[in-house]
Every structure is written in C-alpha cells, then in structure tokens.
Write a structure and sequence with these properties.
The chain is an all-alpha fold. It has 4 helices and no strands. It has a domain of 48 residues.
Length: 87
C-alpha cells in the first residue's frame, strides 16, 4: 500500500464532505444516524491523513472533544494513532 501525505486538494474534498454532513444534520431529525455518519466521515478523513482534530471539528461544526469521541467510536485513539499509516 502506498502511503502518501495528505494534500490540500484532498483536505478540501474531506472538508466539503464534512461540511455537507453538518448542513444536512441541521435539517434532519434522526440525530443517532447522523452522529454515526459523522463519526464515519471523520474517521475516513483521519485515515486519509487529516489528523488535526480542531480542523476536523471546525469543518463539521462540532467541538474537538466530539471529534475525539467520534474517532474512539470508530476504533481510533487520537492520542496514540497520529502516526498510524495513511490508507
């Protein structure tokens, strides 16, 4: 598997997807399903190499603590998995 550092264009794609989720969350009524989807999107961005919890939080419109909780719910420990391979 090739491990390439994240790019600005890649971040923009993830940021756009996360922002889209935040917009939809404001309009939808099923908070549990939206929380699960948000956690999956945050984990996808993390695995792609975007590991700044504050930037992820700003993109989604939640707190960094929520991002860290979402990452843990997806089996990622943000305190120890920063150096994990990029997928």
């Amino acid at each position: 598997m090739d491990h390439h550092p994240p790019t600005r264009a890649g971040w923009e794609r993830h940021r756009t997807a996360l922002a889209s989720h935040a917009h939809r969350a404001a309009q939808e009524a099923d908070p549990a399903a939206l929380a699960d989807e948000r956690a999956e999107r945050i984990a996808t961005a993390w695995r792609a190499g975007y590991r700044n919890t504050r930037a992820l939080a700003a993109a989604v419109g939640v707190s960094p603590d929520t991002v860290r909780a979402d990452l843990r719910s997806q089996g990622i420990d943000p305190a120890t998995d920063r150096g994990a391979p990029i997928s």
